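Me: I'm a chemist; would you kindly supply a protein sequence with its structure tokens?

Assistant:
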Amino acid sequence: MPHLAIEYSAGLEARADIKGVCEKAYEAMLTAGIFPKAGIRVRAHKADVAIVGDALPENDFAAMTLSVGAGRSTEALKEAGDMIFAAVQEALKGPLSTPHFALSLEIREINPELSWKDTPIHARLSGKS
């Protein structure tokens, strides 16, 4: 259940390839080697209205939240987070080269007792369907 949600300011669409950012994050999640392919989700949501920092109109942001199931070590999650963050930094090097951009990543571990799933895609991708 590694789900990466990327919330971003509307102005970022003019300065970055959002689909490309998602693809780079997905590749990094696969490369990390700790997430099952069937569980990976990467999605981006535009914030139509956002006030960033000192409220200058050229300010933009991308805030990433990676929700993962319990059971991985902090060290493994840190390594995966480093890989994902580096991949997205590369994809967003243009906006990051300006003083008007903010990028963040937070990893949240989901309590399995408080998480419900019905995902036949796991069986298909593992060959058990």
